[in-house]
Amino acid sequence: MKKIINLFASVHNQEIVAEAQQLIARQLDTSSRRRFLRQGLTLGGIAMLSGCDISDNASVDKALNAISRSNDRVQHWLFGSNRLAPIYPESAITRPFPFNAFYDEAEVPEVRGETYRLKIAGKVLDKRSWSLPELYNMAQVSQVTRHICVEGWSAVGKWGGVPFADFLRLIGADLSAEYISFKCADDYYTSIDMKTALHPQTLLALTWDGNILPARYGYPMKLRIPTKLGYKNPKHIQVIEVTNTFPGGYWEDQGYNWFGGS
Questions:
Q1: Choosing a second label site near 225 at 20 to 30 A (CA), which of 8, 83, 200, 256?
Q2: Hey, which residues does 56 pair with through a beta bridge?
Q3: Are 24 and 49 in contact (CB under 8 A)?
Q4: Which residues pair with 170 in a beta bridge?
Q5: Residue 1 burial by CB count (10 A; 0-12/13-18/19+): exposed, middle or buried?
Q6: β-bridge pairing 237-243 and 119-122
C-alpha cells in the first residue's frame, strides 16, 4: 500500500513519466500519437513499453491497451464515495457554458418532451418507462461543480436533478451488478461502474442553472458525474441498462480510458 501511495506522490516519478511520454509520442504516427497522449502513461506502463519496438505501431497499440486497462484498475481502486469533487459558489459559474459534442451544435437532436420515455433495461425489478413529468416530480438536488474536458478545458456549471443512487434503488436495480450503460438520442453511448453510479454526486440531471435542461446541454436528461471527465457524462439519455456485460462506450471503443476519472 505504501509503495503505491509513494509512487503517486513522487514529483520525480511524474517527471520521468512526462519525459517518457514525449519521447515515445514523437516516434508514433499521428493517430497513434493522439491516442497515446489521451491514454497517458504510468511508471508501470514505461516498464511494459520497454520490451516492445516503439517504431512498430501495432506493438505500441497493444502495449497502450494494456496500460489503459492498468490505469482503469488503479483509478477504480482509488475511487470512493467519500472522495467528493469540489463544490463552487454560483458566482463561479462559467457563462456562457461551452457546448461540446462529437458533432456541431446545429446537429443537436430534437427530443419531444411530451412523448419522451426513459427506458430501463437489464438487471432491475421495475422495467417500466419513465415520462418527464414523473422524473420532474422526484425529489431533486442541485450542485455547482466543474466539468473537465479531455481536450484540456474546464467550466463550472450548476446542474439539478435526481441523485442516481436514489433512482437505482427506486427501480430495484441489482446494486451488485458491475456496469450501467447509457444509450442516447444523438447515438452516443457510454458506461460506468456501479461504485460511480452510487456516488453521492452522480446525478440524473434535468435542469441547468435552475431551468429545464437546454437542448445544447442534453435535454431532456444527462448524466452528471463531477468525478469523471466530460465524455463520461452522456446527454439526451434514452436507455439505462444495468448489466454484468462490459458495454464499452463511443470514445472508449476508440481508445479512451474507460474509467475516465477527473
A1: 8
A2: none
A3: yes
A4: none
A5: exposed
A6: parallel
User: What does the pLDDT average to over 144-163?
Assistant: 96
Residue 14 has pLDDT above 70, yes or no: no
4 alpha carbon, distance to own chain's centre? 24
The β-bridge partners of 146 are 156
The answer to whether the beta carbons of residues 57 and 247 sit under 8 Å apart is: no
How much is the pLDDT for 30? Answer: 52
Read off the amino acid at residue 193: D
Residue type, 202: T
d(CA 36, CA 83): 28
* Residue closest to 78 by CA, chosen among 67, 70, 86, 89: 70
**pLDDT at residue 207, as a whole number:** 98
- Mean pLDDT calculated for residue range 174-201: 97
Residue 133, pLDDT > 60, answer: yes
SS (H, E, C) the chain: CHHHHHHHHCHHHHHHHHHHHHHHHCCCCHHHHHHHHHHCCCHHHHHHHCCCCCCCHHHHHHHHHHHHHHHHHHHHHHCCCCCCCCCCCHHHCCCCCCCCCCCCHHHCCCCCCCCCCEEEEECECCCCCECHHHHHCCCCEEEEEEEECCCCCEEEEEEEEEEHHHHHHHCCECCCCCEEEEEECCCCEEEEEHHHHCCCCCEEEEEECCEECCHHHCCCCEEECCCECHHHCCCCEEEEEEECCCCCCCCHHHCCCCCCEC
Contact between 218 and 33 under an 8 Å Cβ cutoff? The reply is no
Q: d(Cα 194, Cα 14) in Å, to the nearest integer?
A: 30
